[in-house]
Amino acid sequence: MNTAEKKPRLTTSAMIASIAAEGQRVKSAPFGNALVELAASRPDIVGMTADLAKYTDLHLFAKAYPQRFFQMGMAEQLLMAAAGGMAKEGLLPFITTYAVFGTRRAYDFIHQVIAEENLNVKLCCALPGLTTGYGPSHQATDDLAMMRGVPGLTIVDPCDALDVEQAVPAIAAHNGPVYMRLLRGNVPLVLDEYDYRFELGKAKMLRDGRDVLILSSGFMTMRALETAEELRKHAIDAAVLHSPTIKPLDAETILHEVAKPGRLVVVAENHSEIGGLGEAVARLLLCSGVRPAAFRQIALPDAFLDAGALPTLHDRYGISVEAMVTRIKSWL
Amino acid sequence: MDSPSHKPTPTLADRAYRIRRYALQMGEVQGQGYVGQALGWADVLAVAYGHAMNYRPEEPEWEGRDRFLLSHGHYAIALYAALIEAGIIPESELETYGSDDSRLPMSGMATYTPGMEISGGSLGQGLPIGVGMALGLRFKNNPAFVYNSMSDGELDEGSTWEAAMSAAHHGLSNLICLVDINNQQADGPSSKVLGFEPLADKWAAFGWHVQRIDGNDLPAVIEAFDTARNLQTAQPRVILFDTLMGKGIPFLEQRDKNHFIRVEAAEWQQAIAILDQSQQQEAV
């Protein structure tokens, strides 16, 4: 590990530090701004949080619509159940907290109160996967696994600021409960350079390639695009298929792309290797009898992850661009 | 009900009698059920549906209705009996209780039954749902009340107290919580499972208006509902009802108590006969 020793020792940044790389184009608070804009034409939208408005960009909504904002305190079970109660009264709650607290602490309330009655609640949970260096208490590496187990729950994992701001009206228009992984603060902006528009339930090809198909969601799509650029320098032609809707999966598009012969299929996700996009895609392929040339998963290990600086941790767990390039080359 | 000061209002006593009778009939269909709870809670349900609540039997989802949340889903047998008495469910459906494809499952679910507002049963969810509904109603300027019906066992759940804090914080004067204190939980007396006394002081300390009464004393139940509804302070209201499981059927009242009272096949008709007999005596 000579190269690692040469690197300066990094320190853990603030819990809510932006995931944007230095110099990367960003957009501020895409969720909060999109919700404020949408709420102008949707008087049924209310905002609710468990003491994390400021850290989920919901404070912008609270400022714009103080009468439509409800502070529920640091009580996630109450947050979920009360949001269900609001939805039963015909309102459209957008509720926010961190993904660890929303899912682990309140699972039964999402399952029984919100999903069982198909209530129109939009759960928008920040710090998905490994987006904080604060250790397992704040790293939601298992949220998709838990949420995929809830019948009827739609799950969205947006890539960047454009994805987030387009997903907001899309999930509002969908009648039923939605779990969205939230990127907040200064969020990278990358998809505006592609011919892309967020559509609920649709996976989109961002670039084509002959040798590798990287299927990804969340900010791992951003990493996948950079990885594809790097691989090109090594004469490896990589395609990127972005699947921001985790459930229901866009089976048609995924099967169509995977069925094209001769490509290594790599599913890249900011989540534990258990229960996320990788397993969902593997099941789809097996059950559909579609066999890629080879199948690999880039995901977080089934472990309690370390605390530390995000770049260090992303390298350590194989989800940095550098690590992805190395791994994909080794698989070809 | 033999003391003169406890002389019940006849119509509500009739309603309570019929709620008990419907519950026993449903218990007989299944050969089991939480009939002890239904008998103990019948007076509260009679007053809720026969006196306190606004609703339209022919239009269970009428926007102006008072919302009654059955947090303790296993009390469904009691609420079905009350909904039959209220005219929301036809009496003829009683014999489908707990059967395949019935609208009356063993544990109450909103998607199955008209008049069943929530899917309870995962205990401790009714009150926090009630907080959301009460906030929503106030936001819409809808003057309806939300009643959350819960068991004393649900006092063990942290979510109950999250909701209690929140209801007081938001000054939810349209939220009325009804707690059945029968001191019986799955593993034994509530006081042995997880003690909750002094209960009135706890709720008061959380910022609620508190009443504690005998939940099988009809005039007292009526007065408590009236007080809770008419209070002018901007705070949520709780009524703590001490009740007797199996109330009205002496051999069930005296039976070794637990969460699930065992009733032998021949005893259902015996219980109904006792109920009918005491009702006839009341009428005289």
UniProtKB/TrEMBL annotation, chain A:
- Signal peptide location: none
Question: What cofactor does its activity depend on?
Answer: thiamine diphosphate
InterPro entries given for it? PDH/Transketolase, THDP-binding, Transketo_C/PFOR_II, Transketolase-like_Pyr-bd, Transketolase_C
- Entry's SMART domains? Transket_pyr (SM00861)
Give a single Pfam family match.
Transketolase_C
Instruction: Provide this UniProt record's keywords sorted from A to Z.
Output: Thiamine pyrophosphate
Residue limits of the Transketolase-like pyrimidine-binding domain?
25-189
Similarity section: Belongs to the transketolase family.
- Please identify the protein, giving its name as recorded: Transketolase central region
What organism is listed for this UniProt entry?
Pseudogulbenkiania ferrooxidans 2002
From TrEMBL, chain B:
Cited Pfam families: Transketolase_N
Q: Which CDD domains match?
A: TPP_TK
Q: Where is the Transketolase N-terminal domain?
A: 19-270
Alphabetically sorted, this entry's keywords are: Thiamine pyrophosphate
Superkingdom of the organism of origin: Bacteria
Gene3D superfamilies, alphabetically?
A: 3.40.50.970
Keyword hit for Glycoprotein: no
Task: Give the required cofactors.
Answer: thiamine diphosphate
Enumerate the InterPro entries for this protein: THDP-binding, Transketolase_N
Q: Which family does the record claim for this protein?
A: Belongs to the transketolase family.
What's this protein's name?
Answer: Transketolase domain protein
| Organism from which the protein derives | Pseudogulbenkiania ferrooxidans 2002
| The organism's taxonomic lineage, starting at the top | Bacteria, Pseudomonadati, Pseudomonadota, Betaproteobacteria, Neisseriales
